[in-house]
Amino acid sequence: MTIQIHPIKAFNDNYIWTLINKNNKQAIVIDPGQAKPVADYMEEHGLELTSIWTTHHHFDHIGGVMELQEYFPMTHIVAHSEHGVEQDQTIKDGSSVSAWGCSAQVWDIPGHTASHMAYVLDIEGQKHCFCGDTLFSAGCGRVFTGTIEQLYQSFRRLNGLPDETLLYPAHEYTANNLRFGLAIEPGNVAMQQALAQAEEQTAAGACTLPVTLAHEREVNVFLRVDEPSVIAGVKTKMDIEDEERLTIFAALRALKNDF
Ligand SMILES: [Zn+2]
Question: If I label 233, which of 4, 31, 79, 207 is the partner at 20 to 30 A Cα–Cα?
Answer without folding.
Answer: 207
